[in-house]
């Protein structure tokens, strides 16, 4: 039997109070219909009170007859239904009545009659719990022709008169106008008032249940009482009390002794209580408690013995189906909590529970299959289908309990647990005849689990589930679909380089291929199983396995039917084997031709390819030749040979993602080799040479690759089955592709300087020696192009703001590139190329040298990295004669300029020349020339200072800023005699950032630039000026106006204070 359905016993959604609406004529009265429609609309709103509204009719009051009860059973099947669909928590009477009506007395008596009729209905015998049902009166007033003041005067006395007459309290009487515009607001107020009154009914029910005297040793009655208290507390929205009572009921249920005959009912009741605990925990955001309860439920009941009633196999099947149902119920609760905002993670999501449910269903299918194999049907056995369903006539006289077996409603009432053997046997036979493996449900549960894992990109979980689906499909006999799943899993394993798990899947794939007598699929699988690398991580006899598969593979080539594997994946009897052999005989008799794609697979043939461009020098020059190398390793324990090896080479841009026969036929280049023989357990290499420039068909691009490799024509003794093995290679794979370059000119280059780091003051000259390294040919008419670039290989123009230029060797003008022609270059001859450049900024850049031959078929490229930096790091300060830093310069007073610097390379100072501003009169030596004996030799990072005294004679009131002047250092490198002059401005600031920029401003655009200034001296210093220049000089006045605005926007001076010595 399928497990008892919890959702038919309990309401699916949140529990609601039942409210019956009386006195509404929804057919003839539009306003009454509007009232009922608004109540129904409110019940569907997300913010509504938990109330259910129904129209009060005589059918609502169901007479529940006295039924025969069985006190040994736990929960009545229809008990929750009474409080959600039968017993109302409140009855609302709608009555049309105006305070100023003429026939007031007649209306009062009619109202009193209606109220008394409702009281008589809910207080009839047989309804012990309905005394708490609340009667609510809602008066609908029209008030036509009556003013509001008159109506208000009549309201209080008339209402008091009605309450006294019908014996209702003040909170049970409400008045609403009959205007539809304000009706919805009144409905909202009525809903809140109803919700305040309805819990009284459930509180009265709880009080009566608690008042019953129940022995503490009667676990069944205690479970029943605690469940009822919990359910009614949940209806009252007292979730804390409901949770406590549910847990007490669950604990008592877990302590029950599970007799085989009652196990089905106990498990069903435990399922209901566990479901309610988990549901309330999720609803109250007690997430951890819900998972704790479910784990407790598993530990308590999942590990129990299943028993032997009504049959050992049936007991196992029912127990696994029940466990499946528990996983599904919890997974659905988990899904609903996620839809309400709960965050799931990869190791805790509904997919895990759906997967567990599928595994339990799969176990049940296995037991069902075993049971059906052991059953022997007898013609005398009578199958009665009615014993598996409840008799409607019986349910009118006897109480039906949740989890009770249908055929035991009467037998459970027999004294001393006596039961009818024939009746039990008939029920067992009916169960055995009706129960069948439900493979479709298993696969459906696996698919649901896989969708959840897909959200978290849990590929390993998905792959495992696909493997389980394939096994279930094999069990169900759907071999075609199972084969598709197995192929998909194998491809995923090969892509992730996970070869450990492929062997078991290949065995299943091979079994299905053998069963279907499919030649291509069989050879595809056995080609992999015959390789010893498939068993690297398996503790099996490798040679035994590989010899078996190799023998089957070779035999199949020779037209012999392969031997069955007998792995147990698909158990076959002799008659089925004979049928399969017949299919193979028919397949082989047609002399089929197979085509197997072994790309990326671990199989008995390991193939690798490579493309390499070679440069072969001869008397005519250098010729480009492409070498294609093919390596084939035979992993079989026997020699194997093929008639032809074909190599297909194509442009990379033309290689498709899937290579078909049409693609191979239209390949640009096809290379062949015949009589391919590969010895056992050995590797053999084959070489193909071709010149792309001398082919009859040309490639579109220089980027070519090996598209496919085909081994065709198996050459064995008595070969009857033939075909080809294919390998396709990925696009732009480095091993199987090559970029064909032009012939390389036989040239060598050498830089004739020790370093490519240049210092300001030196002559920026890079001498490059170009040598002909050919031993056979003299070179002539070589075109040398020299250019500047920001990258080593790619030609990227240098930005204009870096101000780096080449100097044309003939005109000495600044250019970005120039061309030098080498007329001839003899064998072992050389040519000196002097590359001179100019810059006034520290920079790193590359000088590119491109050399082309006169026929433009060969070339040479080389790049040189060049750096330009300052030879010294310096600092300039103004000090007094007492060596104190001055904040300001005083006219006609002796002061000193102190120039401190640190060398960035080894140098020899030959002279120092001061060139001060005209307003500063030097009073010490301006030029210091050193003799050879007194040259100042400085090492790297040496520190030196120079001083000069002066008298300032600035004009009075002059606000213009002035520079201190310049200093020129004459120096040379220790290894040369060339004197270099480095001139340094004695500025008041050091700048960090671009001091000069070229920009384009669109209308409305804003440009911002940030410069960091480091004051080299203290005092009132001149503020740096902003100079603007324009490319378009057609309007001469506009630049002047912008320059004046720029100067006015900035201060002229800045005061810098000295922090003193720290």
Summarize the structure.
The chain has 1062 residues and is α+β, with helices and mostly antiparallel strands.
Structural overview:
The structure is a single chain. The chain has nine domains: 6-208, 3-Layer(aba) Sandwich (Rossmann fold), CATH 3.40.50; 221-304, Methane Monooxygenase Hydroxylase, Chain G, domain 1 (Up-down Bundle); 310-374 and 438-476; 382-435, no CATH class; 479-594, no CATH class; 605-739, Sandwich (Immunoglobulin-like); 751-792 and 805-853, Immunoglobulin-like; 872-986, Immunoglobulin-like, CATH 2.60.40; and more. Strand 7 (605-618) and strand 8 (621-634) form a beta hairpin. The longest helix is centred in the N-terminal third of the chain and has 28 residues, at 312-339. It is of the alpha+beta class and 1062 residues long. The protein has 24 helices and 38 strands.
Question: What ranges have pLDDT less than 50 throughout 5 or more consecutive residues?
Answer: 125-129
Fraction of residues in β-strands: 25-35%
Give average pLDDT, whole number. 85
Text of the CATH class of the largest domain:
Alpha Beta
The second-level CATH architecture of the largest domain is 3-Layer(aba) Sandwich
Structural class: alpha+beta
Tell me the span between the first and last alpha carbons: 94 Å
The count of domains is 9
* Rg from Cα: 50 Å
Approximate helicity band: 25-40%
Give the oligomeric state: single chain
Number of helices: 24
Total strands: the figure is: 38
CATH topology of the largest domain: Rossmann fold
Main sheet attributes: strand count, strand direction, barrel closure: 6 strands, mixed
Domain Trafficking protein particle complex subunit: 265-529
GO cellular component, one term: cytoplasm
Protein name: Trafficking protein particle complex subunit 11
């Amino acid at each position: 039997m399928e497990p008892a359905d919890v959702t038919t016993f309990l309401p699916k959604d949140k529990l609601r109070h039942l409210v019956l609406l009386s006195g509404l004529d929804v057919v003839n009265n539009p306003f009454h219909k509007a009232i009922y429609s608004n109540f129904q609309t409110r019940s569907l709103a997300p913010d509504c009170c938990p109330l259910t509204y129904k129209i009060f009719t005589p059918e609502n009051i169901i007479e529940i007859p006295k039924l025969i009860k069985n006190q040994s059973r736990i929960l009545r099947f229809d008990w929750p239904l009474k409080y959600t669909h039968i017993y109302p928590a409140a009855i609302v009477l709608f009555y049309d009545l105006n305070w100023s009506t003429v026939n007031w007395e007649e209306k009062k008596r009619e109202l009193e009659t209606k109220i008394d009729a409702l009281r008589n209905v809910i207080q009839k015998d047989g309804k012990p719990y309905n005394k708490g049902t609340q009667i609510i009166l809602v008066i609908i007033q029209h008030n036509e022709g009556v003013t509001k003041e008159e109506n208000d005067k009549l309201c209080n006395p008339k209402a008091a008169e009605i309450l006294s007459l019908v014996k209702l309290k003040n909170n049970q009487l409400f008045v609403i106008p009959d205007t539809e515009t304000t009706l919805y607001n009144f409905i909202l107020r009525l809903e809140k008032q109803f919700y305040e009154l309805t819990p009284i009914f459930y509180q009265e029910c709880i009080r009566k249940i608690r008042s019953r005297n129940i022995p503490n040793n009667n676990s069944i009655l205690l479970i029943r009482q605690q469940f009822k208290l919990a359910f009614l507390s949940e209806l009252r929205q007292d979730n804390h009390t409901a949770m406590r009572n549910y847990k007490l009921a669950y604990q008592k249920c877990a302590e029950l002794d599970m007799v085989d005959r009652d196990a089905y009912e106990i498990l069903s009741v435990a399922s209901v209580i566990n479901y309610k605990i988990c549901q309330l925990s999720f609803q109250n955001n007690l997430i951890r408690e819900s998972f704790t309860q479910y784990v407790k439920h598993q530990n308590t009941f999942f590990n129990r013995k299943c028993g032997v009633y009504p049959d050992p196999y049936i007991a196992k099947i029912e127990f696994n189906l029940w466990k499946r149902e528990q996983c599904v119920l919890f997974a659905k609760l988990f899904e609903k909590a996620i839809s309400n905002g709960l965050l799931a993670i990869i190791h805790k999501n509904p997919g895990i529970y759906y997967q567990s449910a599928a595994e339990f269903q799969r176990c049940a299918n296995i037991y069902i299959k075993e049971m059906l194999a052991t059953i022997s049907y007898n013609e005398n056995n009578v199958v009665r289908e009615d014993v598996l369903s409840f008799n409607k006539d019986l349910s009118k006289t006897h109480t039906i309990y949740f989890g009770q077996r249908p055929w035991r409603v009467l037998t459970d009432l027999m004294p001393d647990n006596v039961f009818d053997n024939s009746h039990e046997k008939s029920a067992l036979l009916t169960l055995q005849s009706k129960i069948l493996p439900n493979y479709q449900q298993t696969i459906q549960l696996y698919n649901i689990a896989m969708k959840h894992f897909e959200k978290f990109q849990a590929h390993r979980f998905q792959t495992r589930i696909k493997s389980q689906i394939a096994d279930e499909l094999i069990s169900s006999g759907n071999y075609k679909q199972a084969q598709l799943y197995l192929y998909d899993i194998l491809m995923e394993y090969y892509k992730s380089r996970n070869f450990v798990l492929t062997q078991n899947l290949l065995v299943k794939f091979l079994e299905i291929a053998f069963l279907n007598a499919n030649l291509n699929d069989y050879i595809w699988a056995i080609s992999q199983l015959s390789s010893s690398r498939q068993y690297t991580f398996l503790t099996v006899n490798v040679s035994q396995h590989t010899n078996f598969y190799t023998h089957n593979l070779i035999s199949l080539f020779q037209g012999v039917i392969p031997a069955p594997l007998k792995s147990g994946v698909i158990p076959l009897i002799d008659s089925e084997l004979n049928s399969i052999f017949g299919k193979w005989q028919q397949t082989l008799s047609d002399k089929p031709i197979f085509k197997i794609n072994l790309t990326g697979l671990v199989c008995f043939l390991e193939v690798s390819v490579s493309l390499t461009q070679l440069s072969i020098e001869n008397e005519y020059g250098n010729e480009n030749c492409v070498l294609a190398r093919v390596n084939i390793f035979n992993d079989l324990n026997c020699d194997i040979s093929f008639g032809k090896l074909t190599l297909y080479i194509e442009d990379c841009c033309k290689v498709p993602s899937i290579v078909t026969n049409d693609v191979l036929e239209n390949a640009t280049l096809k290379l062949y080799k015949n009589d391919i023989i590969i010895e056992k357990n050995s590797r053999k290499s084959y070489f193909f040479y071709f010149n792309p420039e001398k082919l009859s068909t040309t490639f579109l691009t220089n980027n070519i690759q090996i598209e496919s490799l085909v081994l065709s024509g198996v050459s064995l003794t008595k070969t009857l089955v033939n075909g080809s093995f294919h390998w396709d290679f990925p696009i732009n794979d480095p091993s199987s592709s090559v970029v064909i370059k032009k012939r390389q000119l036989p040239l060598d280059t050498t830089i004739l300087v020790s370093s490519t780091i240049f210092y300001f003051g030196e002559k920026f000259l890079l001498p490059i020696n170009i040598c002909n390294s050919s031993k056979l040919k003299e070179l002539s008419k070589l075109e040398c192009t020299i250019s500047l670039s920001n990258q080593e290989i790619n030609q990227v123009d240098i930005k204009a703001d870096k101000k780096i230029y080449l100097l044309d060797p003939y005109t000495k003008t600044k250019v970005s590139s120039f061309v030098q022609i080498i007329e001839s270059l003899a064998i072992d001859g050389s040519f000196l190329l002097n590359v001179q450049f100019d810059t006034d900024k520290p920079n790193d850049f590359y000088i590119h040298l491109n050399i082309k031959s006169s026929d433009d078929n060969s070339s040479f490229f080389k790049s040189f990295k060049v750096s330009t930096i300052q030879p010294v790091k310096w600092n300039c300060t103004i000090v007094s004669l007492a060596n104190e830093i001055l904040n300001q310069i005083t006219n006609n007073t002796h002061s000193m300029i102190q120039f401190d610097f640190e060398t960035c390379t080894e140098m020899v100072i030959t002279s120092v020349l001061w060139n001060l501003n005209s307003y500063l009169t030097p009073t010490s030596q301006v030029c210091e020339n050193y003799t050879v004996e007194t040259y100042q030799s400085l090492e790297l990072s040496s520190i030196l200072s120079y001083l000069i005294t002066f008298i300032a004679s600035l004009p009075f009131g002059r606000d213009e800023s002035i520079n201190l002047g310049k200093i020129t250092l004459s120096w040379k490198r220790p290894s040369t005699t060339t004197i270099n002059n480095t001139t340094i401005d004695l500025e008041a600031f050091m700048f960090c950032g671009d001091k000069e920029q070229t920009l384009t401003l669109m209308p409305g655009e804003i440009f911002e630039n940030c410069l960091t200034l480091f004051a080299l001296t203290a005092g009132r210093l001149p503020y740096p000026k902003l100079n603007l220049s324009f490319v378009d000089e057609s309007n001469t006045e506009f630049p002047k106006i912008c320059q004046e605005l720029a100067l006015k926007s900035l201060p002229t001076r800045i005061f810098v204070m000295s922090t003193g010595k720290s």
